Amino acid sequence: MKLVVVSAGLSVPSSTRLLGDRLAAAVGRAAEVDVQVVELRELAVEIAQNFTNGFPGRALAAAQEAVAGADGLVVVTPVFSASYSGLFKSFFDVLDPEALAGKPVLIAATGGSARHSLVLEHALRPLFAYLKAVVVPTGVYAASEDWGAEGLDGRIERAAGELASLMAGLSVGRAPRAATVDSFSAVVPFEEQLAALRPTG
To answer: I need a labelling partner for 10 at 20 to 30 A (CA). Which of 17, 79, 148, 194 fits?
Structure first.
């Protein structure tokens, strides 16, 4: 299965990228996945140009195809002004509107204060629900004080396990498709998604 991590971190090194990498590693412990990372910082100019001319550059088009062709996504943004960053939102604004339909998504964010943790519920979850993605129940927020503290590892493992289960269930119920932006062919009904996750026997 193909897992794509979309990271909107701006600095190098980036705590946002670090959280994305830790989530991807945890998904890899729960399921066999091939991981690809999309660094939005490197696509900022092409994203802006896409807004003005309507055409993605080569690197942006490759990122769009990777996201559309993934079996699951980990999306991570830094918190800016109590919400996701403008760069993060802009990438999903230039994505095909149906690219995430029925796709499992794990939402995550980083910030300087624990007070911003609700960004997962009031900003990210509604965005991906609007894009028709299947958002896993557990989101992961990491404030500055969470790194190395008790609790973050548990949230990472729980969320990653939920994503791996959804990816495995949906890959069984979904017909193979090419990894292109406009090639999404079918949305698995929610009842079938739930059935795929129920233990048998």
So the answer is: 148
14-44 residue pLDDT tens: 999 999 999 999 999 999 999 999 999 999 9
Question: Contact 161/30 with Cβ under 8 angstroms?
Answer: yes
**When comparing pLDDT for 191 and 172, which is higher?**
191
The residues near 44 (Cβ < 8 Å, ≥ 6 apart) are 87
Query: Locate tokens 């079938």: which residue?
Result: 192
- Sign of the alpha-carbon torsion through 195, 26, 183, 46: positive
CA distance 52 to 75: 25
DSSP lists the bridge partners of residue 83 as 80
**Residue 152 in contact with residue 160, Cβ under 8 Å?**
no
Question: Per residue in 51-81, pLDDT tens?
Answer: 999 999 999 999 999 999 999 999 999 999 8
**Burial letters 156-195, b for 16+ CB under 10 A, else e:** bbebbbbbbbbbbbbbeebeeeeeebeebeebbeeeebee
Q: What is the pTM of this model?
A: 0.82
DSSP state of 12: S
DSSP codes, 81-97:
TTEE-HHHHHHHHSS-T
The average pLDDT across 108-130 equals 93
Contact 170, 4 (CB under 8 A): no
Cα(147)–Cα(29) distance, rounded to whole angstroms?
Answer: 20
